[in-house]
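R.M. (postdoc): so does anyone remember the format we settled on? I'll just put the structure tokens first.
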């Protein structure tokens, strides 16, 4: 875990860290993937199983009751390191217009990957536009099927949904599935696709041995299904977090306060996190 924020994917030239959202300090460094893949290939326990990459944080915004919760789950599928990120944003209904204005204005805060605003990328699949149209549908009471999209540049599938949580508030849910490659000695094309240059993955896919979606690859083997994860994250959104070192919430969650508007869910003893010592 680093102490700086930055845009998603791998940005800044020599960087070797993948970030999932602008406002989070969570990042995955290439050597950590190499360790996890080594453990997977050799079968020797060096305390780097994919479960150690699990992470959950909550941030409370300036605006009244704007709460953001994001989760991370990693898994190795067909010798590649895949990660599922899900982010919930809780917004009061009486602030939905302000929220949408913010989305359009501060869109860099809401990028889903480094390629979100490449000229020529179809407008309708940028994250902010997907969120806006989903919220408008929710306001109109339309129940729609959400689709899975793919970034044409990096190995990532993503989906946007919104949920009406009653009279007071609604939530926007974004989920993305990212392929971070095989963790070989030198980074492969899948890892490098997340760098903020333009490699067109559609060309790389021509020679790839399989072209299935990353979402399908992840979900076919996931220990925790997308439905269960989503329900679990919704419950945790409403968990009790106090501005004190540790909060033991009535729902069993143990939250560690990082001092400002940020909390981390305490990793369980049976499943320690590789970031624990930095929390
Ligand atoms: Zn991308
Ligand atoms: Zn990416």
């Amino acid at each position: 875990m680093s102490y700086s924020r930055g845009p998603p994917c791998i940005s800044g030239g020599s960087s070797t860290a993948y970030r999932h959202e602008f406002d989070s300090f969570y990042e995955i460094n290439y050597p950590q993937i190499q360790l996890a893949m080594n453990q997977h290939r050799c079968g020797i326990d060096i305390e780097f199983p994919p479960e150690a990459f699990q992470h959950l944080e909550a941030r409370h915004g300036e605006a009244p009751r704007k709460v953001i919760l994001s989760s991370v789950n990693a898994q190795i599928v067909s010798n590649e390191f895949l990660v599922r990120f899900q982010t919930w944003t809780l917004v009061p209904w009486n602030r939905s217009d302000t929220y949408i204005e913010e989305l359009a204005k501060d869109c860099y805060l809401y990028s889903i990957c480094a390629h979100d605003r490449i000229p020529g990328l179809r407008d309708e699949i940028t994250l902010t536009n997907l969120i806006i149209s989903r919220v408008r549908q929710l306001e109109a009471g339309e129940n729609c099927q959400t689709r899975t999209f793919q970034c044409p540049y990096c190995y990532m599938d993503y989906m946007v949904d919104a949920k009406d949580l009653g009279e007071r508030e609604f939530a926007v849910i974004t989920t993305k599935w990212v392929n971070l490659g095989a963790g070989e000695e030198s980074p492969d094309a899948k890892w490098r696709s997340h760098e903020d240059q333009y490699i067109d993955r559609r060309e790389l896919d021509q020679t790839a041995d399989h072209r299935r979606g990353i979402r399908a690859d992840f979900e076919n083997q996931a220990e925790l299904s997308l439905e269960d994860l989503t329900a679990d994250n919704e419950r945790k959104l409403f968990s009790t977090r106090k501005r004190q070192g540790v909060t033991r919430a009535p729902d069993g969650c143990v939250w560690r306060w990082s001092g400002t508007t940020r909390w981390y869910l305490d990793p369980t003893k049976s499943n320690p996190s590789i970031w624990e010592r930095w929390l």
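R.M.: ...and that's the designed sequence above, right after the tokens. Also worth knowing: Residues 113-115, 151, 153-154, 156 surround zinc ion (ligand 1) (CB under 6 Å). Residues 105 and 235 are 30 Å apart (CA to CA).
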